TrEMBL record:
Keywords: DNA-binding, Transcription, Transcription regulation. This is Xylose operon regulatory protein. The gene is xylR_5. The keyword Isomerase does not apply. It comes from Novipirellula caenicola. Pfam families: HTH_18, PBP1_XylR, Peripla_BP_3.
């Protein structure tokens, strides 16, 4: 009888991102040899568990958030894959979200809504928050827009300082120019911004549009108003971590170089559902595209809707949005195709019908032109199927 390998998962279960990691690990186990999994109750950044010193398993996948955890894992001598951005354990393989792409999606999402002022609300304790801030700031400044930033300092994490931090966020929000789009480094921080906006009677999204990260569906739905969020591919991250650990347990050489997993897109909800565009005709055209892009519309349909000439529309649209109306229609359709490829088992024919492409072949050509990969290649990349 072949002995099952014993693998410990030092990953908390209290947030959507971590649960996505666990789901990806389960996906890998179901498609390969079964492991005996040890998943103890573990808080993020908790001290090293006592059992770790005595544990005689075969491998570990962990969010290594402290030096103490790193040292304890290192003493075991067991193969390990890190799924944290903290980098407390140099020299081991690690898998993380691509924070540059997350920031890029956030910037694009808010800039395309016409905001000229953009803000970032983050947490200086976490590397990934700092990276998201830096990438987001660079994109905002490159676009010629104003950048504003608030970050929770490392020494502000105690419960006694929570109310004082809330007051500082309130003052920051009061002082911001409006309208403004605010990118929060994760959903919990975004929810806090929404709570303070409600207390200050700041209209969301009319005065401040708020975007989070992680797409924790329960948290986003409970937020008031419902929270828009960047969707990381945590399931893919967990799958890749399990694949690397399996290779290590098989005695294969695995590069210590990190693997960055691309996010899936943005789930738009009420907190950013607005257009801060002064040109009312362009705003009307863009709103029409968003409402009808998947119904097979073309530029002539938009022209009839806004009742201006095609040449004037295209000139003003490009000046404000940076794209032609046709390019925006195609961009909206491709975004929807990506979502359906990643989250459903629909065939290409079904997806083409759902997204306004008359033929599957046209969808494939357009998708490859925009993304440099076929729909099949994209689906395999993001779902492991």
């Amino acid at each position: 009888m072949i002995r099952r390998r014993s693998v410990a998962l030092l990953i908390e279960t209290s947030n959507a991102y971590a649960r996505g990691l666990l789901s990806g690990i389960v996906d890998y186990i179901h498609s390969h040899d079964a492991w005996s999994i040890y998943l103890p109750e573990q808080e993020r950044a908790a001290p090293p568990p006592e059992w770790l010193r005595r544990w005689k398993g075969d491998g570990i996948i962990a969010r290594i958030e402290t030096k103490e955890i790193a040292e304890s894992i290192q003493r075991t001598g067991i193969p390990v894959v890190d799924v944290s951005a903290a980098r407390h354990y140099p020299g081991v393989p690690w898998v993380e979200t691509n924070d540059e792409e997350i920031a890029s999606l956030a910037a694009e999402h808010l800039l395309q809504r016409g905001f000229k002022h953009l803000g970032f609300c983050g947490d200086a304790e976490f590397n990934w928050s700092t990276w998201r801030r830096n990438y987001f700031r660079d994109l905002v400044e490159k676009s010629g827009c104003d950048f504003h930033c608030y970050e929770t300092a490392i020494n502000e994490k105690s419960s006694s300082s929570f109310e004082s931090e809330r007051q500082r966020i309130a003052q920051w929000l009061k002082d911001l120019p409006k309208p403004i789009g605010v990118f929060a480094s994760y959903d919990i921080k975004a929810q806090l911004v929404l709570d303070v906006c409600r207390e200050l009677e700041i209209a969301v999204p009319e005065e401040i549009a708020v975007l989070g990260v992680d797409n924790d569906e329960l948290l986003c739905s409970l937020a008031d108003p419902p929270l828009s969020s960047v969707v990381p591919n945590s399931r893919k991250t967990g799958f890749e971590a399990a694949r690397l650990l399996d290779a290590m347990m098989n005695g294969e050489e695995v590069s210590e170089e990190g693997r960055l997993i691309e996010p899936l897109g943005v789930e738009t909800r009420q907190s950013t559902d607005i257009l801060a565009i002064d040109d009312t005709d362009v705003a009307a055209a863009l709103q029409f595209i968003r409402q009808h892009a998947y119904a097979g519309i073309n530029v002539n349909d938009i022209v009839r809707h806004v009742n201006i000439s095609r040449r004037v529309l295209e000139t003003r649209f490009r000046n404000v949005i940076g794209r032609t109306p046709h390019e925006e229609i195609l961009r909206q359709r491709i975004m929807r195709v990506k979502k359906l490829l990643a989250e459903t088992d629909m065939t290409l024919r079904q997806i083409a019908t759902r997204t306004g492409f008359e033929h599957t072949e046209y969808l494939t050509v357009a998708f490859k032109r925009e993304t440099k990969q076929t729909p099949t290649q994209f689906r395999k990349k993001v779902t492991n199927k």
